[in-house]
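Sorry to interrupt, but I need a hand with the structure work. Go ahead and set the record down below:
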Amino acid sequence: MIKNPALPNNYSSAQVGDCCKKEMILAKDHAIFSFLYGKYALMITSLEPENDLHLIFDLFEFNIEYPLVAIGNWNSSPYSQALYAKYHNHKMLHLIEPQLHSRTLNMLRSNCYVYIDAHHQVDDKNTLTEAMYLQLPVIAYASNYNKKLTEDKALYYKSVSHLLDAIKSLYPNKASENSTFMKIIIDQKIQYQKQYSELV
C-alpha cells in the first residue's frame, strides 16, 4: 500500500489521462528531431536559477554519452535567456520551446530513456506526475515533495555528482524497474482518488 495516496495539488485522474498518451516515433518526427535516432534524457522544467540547470547542462555536455532534451520557456527571465544563449548550439543539448502539439510532447515523453525532474520546489504543472503516468524512469531532485510523490522509489540527486552517479547507474534493467515502480505508484494514487470521489 502506498504511503501518500493523494494526487498532488488536487490534480485529477481525468486530467492525467487526458494529457498523457503513449505516442510512437514517426518518420516525420525524425526529420524534425535528429536525437530520436538514439536514446536521450528529457527534462520539462521551470527555468529558475534555484533549479541549477546550468550545472546539469554542463554535466551532459561533458560527461554523458547521450543528449539532454530540455523543454522550457527560454524567454521567461534573464536566467533562461542566458541559458539559451550559452547552450543552444551544444551538440549534447537540445533546448525546445514548450509550445508543442500535444502529440509531439507525448512522443518526446514516451520515448525518452530517462526523465529528469530538476524542480527544487513544488512543480505546479505536475510534469513529474505525468512522467510517472507515462511509465518513465525518473531521476528527481531530492526534495521532500518529489520523494513523497514517488514514494522514495525513484532515483534522487542533491548535487551534480549525485546526478552523474544516478545516470551512470541506470542500466536498462534498472531503468525498467524504476519505470514500473513509477507507474504502479501513480496508478494507485489515481485509483485511490477515484474511490474517494465515489464515497463523497
About this structure: The domain at 22-199 is CATH 3.40.50.2000 (Rossmann fold). The longest helix spans residues 172-199.
